[in-house]
Amino acid sequence: MAAANAGAMVRFVAAFLAAVLVMMVPCAPRAAAAAVGVNWGTVSAHRMPAPVVVELMRANRIGRVKLFDADQAALRALMGSGLQVMVGITNEMLQGIAASPAAADAWVARNVSRYVGPGGADIRYIAVGNEPFLTSYQGQFQSYVLPAMTNIQQSLVKANLARYIKLVVPCNADAYQSASVPSQGVFRPDLIQIITQLAAFLSSSGAPFVVNIYPFLSLYQSSDFPQDYAFFDGSSHPVVDGPNVYYNAFDGNFDTLVSALSKIGYGQLPIAIGEVGWPTEGAPSANLTAARAFTQGLISHVLSNKGTPLRPGVPPMDVYLFSLLDEEQKSTLPGNFERHWGVFSFDGQAKYPLNLGLGSPVLKNAKDVPYLPPRWCVANPGRDLNNVENHLKLACTMADCTTLYYGGSCNAIGEKGNISYAFNSYYQLRKQDAQSCDFDGLGMITYLDPSIGDCRFLVGIDDSRTSTIYSSGDCSRRRFGLWILAFLVIGFLQIGVYL
């Protein structure tokens, strides 16, 4: 009888667990394992709620995301999402963390430990700085990188996370150079010692060397750069390097790094691409057609597993597209294109069709975006606009007017259109405050969309509203709760068997 009761109990437990699993199936499926991820930047006055951004990535089956800092809202939204996360330590924080193990402990406790665990964020990497060896920094952060890594590593050990979370340092491609061909690649003389130490650290921990590669910038900065070499359809100007021939700038740049690593004894170190992309506005070569051609070519190239001449059949470990969203508050010192790297616009609307190699040939747009009311600020047609210059200067200093300039989608909308666009950008930046559309009576509010052709007059995002979507974190916590319930029931049933 006892054996029969025990058998019945086992069958009941099996049925119960099956029911629990059924309940879990529609809740936050695991992200597909893919080599392509995205950078999620937040330098914007029109930020979508973090759960909306996470759902946008999940809807497009994007499995990896790289953050430039430890944004708390982003990390909360990523809990239970299934996305693999790289969280960043900013350059400005390196000195403090390098000087103080206690500061490293505090950073890990606040930004990592509290978010990992059952139902938590799947943090796989911590980026110690962002391009800290960049030439323009003139060595400002250079001496802090390795000490900061050492302290953060010790903090991860204390938190029992060191086996799971790896440290990396995203480097700009200006860390290495070549006289002419990839096989001559070497690191900058001032970096050889520190990069050798960094490579040893990465090798011992099983982490990749992370590099940012931008063929667009090569094309933008040099009129002699062959345009077709920046893309992936073959080039009429290939680079011949002994037995190897390079038909695109990405492979040439990648193998220059491989050569540089080989010269310091780490030629087999895995490589991941921390940033790569193509902007859609702000320069003659920055447009939707070019951005789509480059990004689709890159993805197809990486997912083909062809690798490069120096690493045939070995593609980068991960490739993080730059960027997920436009960021209209970024500095324009490098160029007006800096605000337009997004595959999606600031509000999560796909700019062009793109097949990420994950089952869909197109991208899905963001849902549940909390827009401000559909109203715009435009130039008052009944007023003389001759004295508008100072108002335009104010509007475009505070808000984003880069689409009005040469190479922008709003460059050809005429003088009044330019004024209206600038007024509206400022009005939306100020969350549609009526006073921000006054401009000494030169502006007026309208409820008719003034967008012209491809020139879109934006409506801002109401960041004071709470997203109503069912967040993946909530789903994961529910799923974890079901597991706890299951184990409790099993425990009670086992007690019943013995009784």
UniProtKB/TrEMBL annotation:
Give the residue spans that cross the bilayer.
Answer: 480-498
Q: What molecular functions are annotated in GO for this chain?
A: glucan endo-1,3-beta-D-glucosidase activity
Primary site of residence: membrane
EC number(s) on record? 3.2.1.39
- Where is the protein situated, by its record's location annotation? Cell membrane
Q: Fetch the Gene3D superfamilies from UniProt.
A: 1.20.58.1040, Glycosidases
Does the keyword section mention Lipoprotein?
A: yes
Keyword hit for Protein biosynthesis: no
Q: What class of enzyme is it?
A: hydrolase
Q: What GO terms fall under cellular component here?
A: plasma membrane; side of membrane
Mode of membrane association? Lipid-anchor; GPI-anchor
Domain of life of the organism encoding this protein: Eukaryota
State any GO BP term from the record: defense response
What region holds the X8 domain?
375-457
Where does the signal peptide begin and end? 1-33
Family recorded in the similarity comment:
Belongs to the glycosyl hydrolase 17 family.
| The protein's name in its UniProt record | glucan endo-1,3-beta-D-glucosidase
